[in-house]
């Protein structure tokens, strides 16, 4: 996953361009919190979730990245 994030970052033409990482449906079995925590540790810019409740649960668990549903 981090290799993918870094690959997409390397493709960006402008350094100010941000990347939104989708975290939904318990990350398809990998665990939303675990995935979001890893993305946060690797300085992802934003998270997106399918529904607001998923974002609320991540906030309660300590994820501070900006998110949107």
UniProtKB/TrEMBL annotation:
GO biological process, one term: D-alanine biosynthetic process
Gene3D superfamilies: Alanine racemase
Keyword Cell wall biogenesis/degradation: no
UniProt cross-references to InterPro entries, sorted A to Z: Ala_racemase, Ala_racemase_N, PLP-binding_barrel
Membrane spanning stretches: none
GO MF: alanine racemase activity; pyridoxal phosphate binding
GO annotation, cellular component aspect: cytosol
Keyword Isomerase annotated: yes
Residue ranges annotated for the Alanine racemase N-terminal domain, each copy included: 3-66
Protein keywords: Isomerase, Pyridoxal phosphate
Cofactor(s) this protein requires: pyridoxal 5'-phosphate
Name of the protein: Fructose-1,6-bisphosphatase
Species of origin: Bacteroides pyogenes JCM 6292
């Amino acid at each position: 996953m981090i290799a993918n994030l870094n690959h997409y970052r390397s493709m960006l033409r402008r350094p100010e361009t941000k990347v939104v990482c989708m975290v939904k449906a318990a990350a398809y079995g990998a665990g939303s919190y675990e995935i979001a925590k890893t993305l946060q540790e690797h300085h992802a810019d934003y998270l997106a979730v399918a529904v607001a409740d998923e974002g609320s649960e991540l906030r309660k668990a300590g994820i501070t990245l900006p998110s949107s549903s």
